[in-house]
Amino acid sequence: MLVPLKELLADAKEKSYAVGAFNCPNLESVLAIIGAAEELQCPVILNHAEVHNTLIPIETIAPVMLDFAKKASVPVCVHLDHGTTFEMCIKAIRLGFTSIMYDASGAEYEANVAQTEEMVRIAHACGVSVEAELGHILTSENSGQPENPDDIYTSPSSARDFVERTGVDALAIAFGTAHGIYKVKPVLDLDRILKIKEAVDIPFVMHGGSGLSETEFRTAIKNGITKINYYTYMTLAGGQEVIRKLSGKSPDDTVFFHDISLWATDAMKANVREAMRIFSMR
Predict the structure, then answer these.
(1) Is 88 in a helix, a strand, or coil?
(2) How far apart are CA 198 and CA 209, in angstroms?
(3) Strand positions, DSSP E, 116-244
(4) Is the Cβ–Cβ distance between 18 and 42 less than 8 Å?
(5) What is the largest CA-CA distance in the chain?
(6) Which residue has the higher pLDDT, 45 or 183?
(7) d(C-alpha 234, C-alpha 271), whole Å
C-alpha cells in the first residue's frame, strides 16, 4: 500500500527500528526491493534519486514505482532522493510521490532554512512528507576522519533551530557516513546522533548506508536513526552475480539477456533482504 514517509517513520521511531530506502533506477531494482519487503513483511521506501535521471527519467520510472507500491502487501513510500531544485520536487509531487527530499545543504545555512521552509509549505499542502539535509554527507573519495568534524557534521543546536523553523518531517544528519564504495573506512561519530536527538527529537536519516558493519547499523538505529538510504552495495551485488554467472563462458555460448536480468534481480533481492533484516532489528 502507498503511504507517506511521515507515517512510516512515526512507527519506526516509536518501535526503535529503521526503514530501508532503496534507489531503483530500473525495473529489476523495483522487483528486488518489493520482493524482499514482502517476504520479510517489512515497510520499505522506493527512492528515485535525481542523479539517476541519466539512467531513467523520473517520468518513466515513477508510474512503475507507484504501481508496485499500491499493489504491495506492505506499506511503501515512494520518495524523491536528493531533489536539488524546486522544479524537480514539484514534478515528483505532481507524479504522485508521497515524499520528497529537498536538498539545499550545499547552500548557506539561512538560504537552506528559507528554501526548505517554502518547500515544506508546498509539499504539506499536498499531503507530501519532506526530508531535508543539514551538514555534509561525505563521498567515498573523502571518507575517513575529517580534519575538523564540526565543520561538516550536523550541529545539535543548528538541527533544533532548522527543524523548528522549517517544519520538516525528517532530517538527514551528517556523522561520518559516505556515499559510494568506501575507499577508506569511515570514522563514525555515533554519539552525535544521541546529542542531536537530545536537542530535537524527530526521525533522523542516514545517507551513505552501504558498507557499514551490522553493529554500526544497529548502534545508529538504537541512537535514533529511523531511515537508512542504501543503494551502492545492492546494485554491486547484482553486477557481481552477473560476472560470476558469465565467468568462463565464451562469445559462442547461448546467454539470453532476460537470464542476466533475473540473475541480477535475485542477487539484489538477497542483498536487500539482509539489509532489511538488520534495519528492522531482527
Answers:
(1) helix
(2) 23
(3) 129-134, 138-139, 170-173, 178-179, 204-206, 225-230
(4) no
(5) 64
(6) 45
(7) 6
What is residue 179's predicted lDDT score, i.e. its pLDDT? 66
Burial of residue 136 (number of CB atoms within 10 Å: 0-12, 13-18, 19+): middle
In this structure, the chain runs to a length of 282
How far apart are the two ends of the chain, measured CA to CA in Å? Answer: 23
Catalytic choice (11, 81, 151, 266): 81
Alpha carbon distances (Å) from 92 to 43, 70, 228, 281? 21, 16, 20, 31
Contact between 190 and 229 under an 8 Å Cβ cutoff? The reply is: no
pLDDT at position 97 over 70: yes
Q: How far is Cα 43 from Cα 25, in angstroms, rounded to an integer?
A: 20
d(CA 177, CA 258): 35
CA distance 71 to 56: 22
Please give the average per-residue pLDDT across 57-84, as a whole number.
98
pLDDT exceeds 50 at position 247: yes
Which residue intervals of 19-125 are DSSP H helices? 27-40, 58-71, 86-95, 109-125
Does this model's pTM top 0.85? My answer is yes
Displacement of CA 233 from its chain's centroid (Å): 13
> Is 81 annotated as catalytic?
yes
